[in-house]
Each structure stands twice: as C-alpha cells, then as structure tokens.
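Chapter review: from sequence to fold.
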Amino acid sequence: MYLLTDKSSLDRSVISAGLMGGAAHIIFTGLVFIILQRRRAMLEQLEIRDWSQRELERQVRLRTADLMSTNLRLAQEITERSRTEDALRSAQAELVQTSKLAALGQMSAGIAHEINQPLTAIRSYAENALKFIARGNEETATRNLQRISELTDRMGRITNNLKTFSRRPEQDNHPVDVPKQVQTAIDLVLETGRAGVTDIALSHDEHVRPVIAEANQLTQVFINLINNAADACQNISDPKIEISITEREDRVLVKVNDNGHGILPENLPKLFDPFFTTKPFGDGLGLGLSICYGIIRSFGGTIRAENRPNGGSSFIIELRHEGIGEDTAENSLSTAIAGPDRNFGQTTTVLNMHSDQADL
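The token string follows.
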C-alpha cells in the first residue's frame, strides 16, 4: 500500500525537527559554555585565594619577624634602662654620701674645738684630783673624777653621733621616730659648733607616730635644714631656730623656722634645683636642698619652703605614717598641703649652744 501525502507538510515537519534539533544543540552548547565559564571562574577564584593565602602568610611571616625584632629591641632597651636606673640610684647614693662627708668636713673645725675643750678640762681635773688626793681631800677629788666621767660621756656622744651619721645608709625604709632623729641632728649641729650661738628650740606633740623613712638619711635632711637656717641667721642680733613636729590624721609635719633674712621671691621656685645656691663662691655647691628633696620624695613625702610673715623662712616636711599606702599618702599629702596646723599637748626643749659652752 502506498500513502501519498502533500510534500509541503513533510517539508514543514523536517524544518520543524531541524529547528528543534538546532535549538536543542544551541541550548546544550550554551549550558556547556556556562559550565566551563563557571569552572574557569571557580579556578580563578581558587587561584586568587591561594595567592592571597600565600601573600597573607608571607605578610604574617614578615610581621612576625618585625615584631620579634621589635620585642628584642624592647627587651634590650628595658635591660639597658634597668642598668641605667641602677647606675642612677648608685650615683644618687654616692652623691648623698659625698654630700654627707662634705658636711662632716665642714664640721671638722667645730669637732676639733668641741673635743679639745673636754680634753683640756679632763687634763685639768685629773691633775687637780691627784693634788687633792695627795692632800687627803677625797671629796673634791671624787667630784673632779665625776666631772671627768661626764666629759668622757659627752665626747662619746660626739663621736658616736658622727660615726652613725657618716655610715652609709642601708637603702631600706622602716618605721622611724621623728623627734629622736631631729634631736640627733640638733646634737650633731650643736656639738660640732656649726650653729654658732644660735638658739635652737624643739617642740613636738607628746605622741608622734613613726614615719616610713631611713633613719640616717632623715637625720641628714634635718642637719642640712638646720645648717641652712643657721647660715640664714648670720649677722642677726638674736638668731633663733624653731623646730616643731606635729601629727595629723595621716602624716607628720616637721617645720624648721628661722628669723633670718628670708628667701627672695624669685629664688623660691629654684630653691631645690641642683647646683642652685645663694651662698658666696666656695661656700657650697648648691646640692644640699636638692638632695633633701630627693630623699624626702623617696620616702613618699613632700618638702617645700616659704617666707614667714614676720621675717625669716620656713621649711615644711610632710611624711607619711607607718601603715599608710604610698598612693594614699601621696593623695593625702597633695590635697592637704595647705591645711591649718594643730599644736596640742606639746613638749618643748630649748637648746642653747652658748650656755652649753659656758657650762663646760
């Protein structure tokens, strides 16, 4: 059987099939192209990521090496700074000791005078005692021997104070009795004749709590201040130095007042600067007050100077009590530095170099 149909419809079917095959081929080709493009993009991203990771690792290595080098330099700087600070502390200690020995050198003439007087008196008393014993006057001879014993005690006090003062400090702070150290400084200044004929009056509260300090260095501060006050009272008709010790809630105040010529206003800000001095050339290096400032600050205290309304000058030291923390002490000292004084229950001792020599 033969089926005859129109050729045009067959052509249309062939054309339709061809178009559909072509469209399918185009779609498949497009899909393949898209897949290849996405794969290429993914490969590029992976390559970029690998490159970025390698670059990041390189930067991290460089940065780590830089940080290690910086840390090494910092460690070296810290070590060098530590060595420098140790050398500075050692130099400061040497400077304090040198200043102390220089003060002893200035006292040497007074020391010789103060020791020669008892030696001369001892010789006279001993010779007289021998004569009285030969005459059978035992009572007078005994009295002379007692005076010899008193004079030797005084010479012992002079040498012991000087030996204690000249000893190198131990560089450790501990509770210190302030009135005792002030009295030791007064004894040293008077016994060596450094104060001349200046009257020195000491007054303090009945019970003053100990402060945190180093006893030998604190005595050196008081000696420097008393010597400066004595120098300021030169050419004064009635020279006087008044030292008062008062206790407040969290600190102890020590004031060294004199009736000298006072301090020029333009010199007050420079008073504690190293090598600043108003004394004539050759009389001082200008290190005494600077050393005092450093010592007091190392104790967590403060020191300042001011002129008195009625003439003369005043040096005020504030020290923290035993058991007061350094931060608390610093805050309380700075906030209460201008507070009023309280003088209650005071015990007063007046020392006169002139009368001491007269008794001898």
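Two observations follow directly from the output. Strands lie at 174-176, 199-205, 211-213, 240-247, 251-258, 302-307, 313-320, 346-352. The mean pLDDT is 76.
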